[in-house]
Design goal:
Number of helices: 3
Strand content: under 5%
Number of strands: 0
Radius of gyration: 17 Å
Distance between the termini: 59 Å
Order of helices and strands: HHH
Oligomer: single chain
Length: about 100
């Protein structure tokens, strides 16, 4: 285990609290399941938090720790779902609102 972090490492570590708390508070306080935008926000935020935890584990534990592929793939999967939800929400918005000239 190494705590000899460079600037990037400290940025990751300092981002973790907000990135972790955001999806937890959002799930508890918002009706995220009622809209595509809400789902997109939740899934992208959860994916970001997961990948930040993955990066922090790599920085602290090194590149060879158990479960690293599962954590990485989970984070990417959350981001995949979130980006598709955001894309669908954008298309629905463009389809339902009148065009400006």
């Amino acid at each position: 285990m190494s705590w000899d972090l460079d600037y990037f490492g400290w940025l990751v570590i300092l981002t973790l609290p907000a990135a972790t708390l955001y999806p937890v508070i959002y799930v508890c306080r918002a009706r995220w399941w009622k809209s595509w935008i809400g789902m997109a926000l939740l899934f992208k935020a959860t994916g970001l938090a997961t990948l930040l935890w993955f990066t922090a584990a790599l920085l602290v534990l090194g590149p060879d720790y158990p479960g690293r592929y599962a954590i990485r793939n989970t984070g990417i999967t959350f981001i995949l779902v979130g980006v598709w939800c955001a894309f669908i929400a954008m298309l629905r918005e463009f389809h339902t609102r009148p065009r400006r000239r």
